[in-house]
From TrEMBL:
Its cofactor is Mg(2+). One of its GO terms (biological process) is signal transduction. Mg(2+) 2 binds at I90. PANTHER family: INOSITOL MONOPHOSPHATASE, INOSITOL-1-MONOPHOSPHATASE-RELATED. One of its GO terms (molecular function) is inositol monophosphate 1-phosphatase activity. This is inositol-phosphate phosphatase. The keyword Hydrolase applies. Mg(2+) 1 binds at E70, D88, D91, D215.
Length: 266
């Protein structure tokens, strides 16, 4: 393993763990909750504090690296040149506020647009999903095996029911047969965790019509490391600087869904 990436990874994992402690400590303090684009789009002081904490650490240690974060850092980043950190300080803020669990810190680190490091930290379960490209993916110390073939009829698919109600962003003609044919559906309320669960083989696929780069950056690197695929819902490559629809999954499941369900209806 190149020492260069190992060094970055070692810093990143220690900062993510430290940020997790900050989040846990915040439960004994007052949480300030605001809304963003709509009344259900929540942000708290902790989302902002964790992003600032990570931003400052990266800036101090790796001043040439660029950073894009959900809570406002890196709005000037318009290309994927150089080393780019894509950060979601708390993915699943609604779960964080309502449940105090089922949220994660997510970081993807890219080199000229190629994913090199993926970190997703499930703070409350103390589960860190991590990878350095080419060196295997892990959940804490446990190596995640390469994903094994999963036909639609045996698959568990994760999706958020709002996409069928909210302006019908997923064509119900595509979705209903798929939902009927898979073994089961799940929804966890944190895209980062759902992607980590695919990498860990707990889910076979995840479909959503709109995610921001910070929602999928860490998960993309993790899933690719165990042989999975992450594209938009038409099977096209994702742009790491733009909002995309996302279809992540085990390779055979991904192919079957595209061929049998999505492309047939286009
Ligand atoms: C959200 C979560 C959620 C997904 C939304 C995301 P946030 O991220 O990942 O599961 O459905 O599209 O925006 O706002 O909690 O960081
Ligand atoms: Ca998010
Ligand atoms: Ca977030």
């Amino acid at each position: 393993m190149e020492d260069f990436w190992k060094d970055i990874y070692t810093y990143a994992t220690s900062w993510v763990k430290e940020a997790g402690e900050m989040i846990k400590d915040s439960f004994s303090k007052e949480l300030l909750i605001e809304t963003k684009s709509n009344p259900n789009d929540l942000v708290t002081n902790m989302d902002k504090d964790v992003e600032t904490f990570l931003y400052e650490k990266i800036q101090e240690t790796f001043p040439t690296h660029r950073i894009v974060g959900e809570e406002g850092h890196g709005t000037d980043v318009t290309s994927a040149e150089g080393i780019l950190w894509v950060i979601d300080p708390i993915d699943g803020t609604m779960n964080f506020v309502h449940q105090q669990r089922n949220f994660a810190i997510s970081i993807g680190i890219f080199d000229q647009g190629v994913g090199k490091i993926g970190l997703i930290y499930d703070v409350m379960h103390d589960e860190l999903y991590h990878t350095i490209r080419g060196n295997g993916a892990y959940m804490n110390d446990i190596k995640l095996p390469m994903l094994t073939e999963s036909p639609v009829k045996e698959a568990i698919l994760s999706l958020n029911a709002t996409w069928v109600t909210d302006n019908h962003r997923i064509d119900p003609a595509v979705l209903s047969p798929l939902v009927k044919d898979v073994r089961g559906t799940r929804s966890y309320g944190s895209a980062a965790l759902e992607l980590a669960y695919i990498a860990a083989g707990r889910l076979d696929g995840y479909i959503t019509m709109r995610l921001a780069p910070w929602d999928f950056a860490g998960g993309l690197v993790l899933i690719e490391e165990v042989g999975g695929v992450v594209t938009n819902v038409y099977g096209e490559e994702l742009n790491i600087l733009e909002k995309n629809s996302v279809f992540a999954g085990e390779k055979a499941f991904h192919k079957e869904v595209l061929q049998t369900y999505i492309n047939k209806k286009r």
